[in-house]
Amino acid sequence: MTEAVIISTARTPIGRARKGSLVSLDAFDLAEVVVPAVLERSGVPARDVDSLVLAEAYQGGGVIARNIAVRLGLDDIAGVATNQHCAGGLSAVAIAAGSVRAGMDKVVIAGGTESLSNSAMTTTRKGADGQPVTWVSASHPESPEAPAFDMSITVGENTARELGLTRLDVDEWAVYSHAQAIASIDGGYFTEQIVPVPVPQPDGSTRLFDTDEFPRRGTTVEGLAQLRLLHPELPNPTVTAGNAAGLNDAAAAVTVASDEYAEAHGLRPLARIRSWASVGVAPALTGLGPSLAIPKALDRAGLTLADIDLFEVNEAFCSVPVATIRKLGIRPEIVNINGSGASLGHPIAATGARMVVTMVAELRRRGNALGVVSMCAGGGMGAAMVIEAL
């Protein structure tokens, strides 16, 4: 059977949305940085790339991937847009892997791009007398137990309640996540992953942005305990800004190719994509998505939890990885060892691809074999992918 292998990876550093280093760049600009970088790192001639698949979430529709292909002079490369909310970047990689495994494509660049600093405002003619009003596509139908526009309840609080988690449980995880992210930055573990981004400055100069800026040094349980609860009216509330994911800007991508193509062209793969899976759950149980998607992906790969060296479970809210660990019996010390959404940040459409980039690098750095990346996604979904370092 044809295997889908990862030939190269690249990501931008992650910026803080609306007041960080990337506010002047939109999702198109960020993709225009990461796509040529991942192509150059692959050693694949542009003429051999069959397709470019990029996730996008809040950019107003369209097909950013095709726009970027044309910007880069790659007119003969088709572009595909995908949206699976928080799992969009991971679904883009899965689409690429599936097409390669099926023998339809030999080489696909896949990832995601997100600028929450510059997310589009959409209107619909549903106002009085048919006048335009601001509109956002809801991830699921509104309900009291799962508000469509308040994920702190739908994901954060509901997940904590389902597993009986306390505020201390999730605050302690947030402290751990920030410490792991800072240690990874200080250790230089992200350096080879990151493509520095030239950022225009008001005085006409250019600054090179090359380090994730969201992790907070010196984060403590005592400090987080001082933060305001988002929903103090709820019984046993847990969610604060300190134990939730950030609003962020970034792009990430990987080059996926068939193992036959890699061998024929003398390319050394970094990793093999063993399997992937998506699941649906009730919207009120969105945060439990990873605990269902992970076993499904492992079963498809013929593996068990005991076979896996490292996990990353995105911290949309810190209740999500804690709940996943408890439901599946995963050892906490092998989860989110480089940080995740609460510390590194959560650039929605790019996060899944960023997780793949980071997992490939960390598995290879440690000499480990198998890793799983997983996340919940708005609307009641979960996704997971099994990666084998080569």
TrEMBL record:
Which domain of life does this protein belong to?
Bacteria
NCBIfam families reported for this sequence:
AcCoA-C-Actrans
KW Acyltransferase (keyword) present: yes
Please list the residue ranges annotated as the Thiolase C-terminal domain: 268-388
A single Gene Ontology MF term assigned here is: acyltransferase activity, transferring groups other than amino-acyl groups
What is the name of this protein?
A: Acetyl-CoA C-acetyltransferase
The text of the family note is:
Belongs to the thiolase-like superfamily. Thiolase family.
